[in-house]
Each structure stands twice: as structure tokens, then as C-alpha cells.
Design brief:
Layout: H1 7-17, E1 25-31, E2 34-39, E3 46-47, E4 51-52, H2 54-73, E5 80-88, E6 98-107, E7 111-120, E8 128-135
Antiparallel strand pairs: 1-2, 2-6, 3-4, 5-8, 6-7, 7-8
């Protein structure tokens, strides 16, 4: 199954359907085997100790996987997360953006499985790894 939605289409979809995240989360790259999304980290994303909060990193991973799936199946607003695991591996820098590098591992008719590595600007090693399964609603 090839690419159906490109960078512009995904960012437009987010703006229209999820205005609460529009502008903060931006799809930068859509390739057959990789989607890259950026979060512009602000003070609102930090927790005590000078690091990006876990819920912020989870949200970035979840949104990146969602967009990677939509890039392949089209704008299906009701695709939802059914399982998620996240490993926090390193402390992200408080002053840098985060990027999510997402790969779809399996895309079936009703389930999609994907992995994301999160990177903090200025660090070479990933700060977190997330694996998720999404449920894809039946076509009507």
C-alpha cells in the first residue's frame, strides 16, 4: 500500500481535525518507510528538573504513529490507539525540540503496529522508544 497523504495533507488534516495541536506538532517527512514529526518544545512541555514531561513525549509518539498510518490509509479520523508501550531511555534537553521517527511494522485491515524513536535536538541517541497498536475502523 503506497503513500496516500503527503506532508502538506497531513499537516492540513491536523489543523482541521485537531486544532489543539496544530502548529506545535508538525509532520516534516513522509517516506514509504518513515515519518518524521517535530514538536516545538516550550515551557508548557517541561516538568520540574528541567526536562520534557513523559506525557508530552507520549503524545508526540502517539500523534506520529497516527499520522504515519493516515499517510498510508488516508484521513480516517476514528483510527484509535489500542495498545501502547513507552520506554524512557535518556533525559531530553529542556531547550531543544523533539523529533519522532516512526516506522509502520504491520498495516492490516483492522490493526496497525508501529514503532517510534524520539530524539532530542542536539543528542545523537534516542531519548525514548514507543510501540503502539492502532485499531482501524471498517470502511463504510
Amino acid at each position: 500500500m503506497g503513500q496516500i497523504m503527503n506532508v502538506e495533507a497531513l499537516n492540513a488534516f491536523l489543523s482541521a481535525e485537531f486544532p489543539q495541536v496544530a502548529g506545535r506538532y508538525v509532520v516534516e517527512t513522509v517516506e514509504p518507510d518513515l515519518l518524521v514529526m517535530r514538536l516545538q518544545v516550550s515551557h508548557a512541555h517541561l516538568r520540574p528538573g528541567g526536562t520534557v514531561s513523559g506525557p508530552t513525549m507520549f503524545e508526540l509518539a502517539d500523534l506520529a504513529i497516527y499520522c504515519a498510518i493516515l499517510a498510508r490509509i488516508g484521513p480516517v479520523a476514528l483510527a484509535v490507539t489500542t495498545n501502547a508501550t513507552i520506554d524512557f531511555m535518556r533525559k531530553p534537553a529542556a531547550g531543544g525540540d523533539l523529533t519522532a521517527h516512526c516506522r509502520i511494522l504491520k498495516l492490516g485491515r483492522v490493526l496497525a503496529v508501529a514503532d517510534v524513536l524520539l530524539y532530542s535536538e542536539g543528542q545523537d541517541e534516542p531519548v525514548a522508544r514507543c510501540s503502539m497498536t492502532y485499531s482501524i475502523p471498517p470502511k463504510s
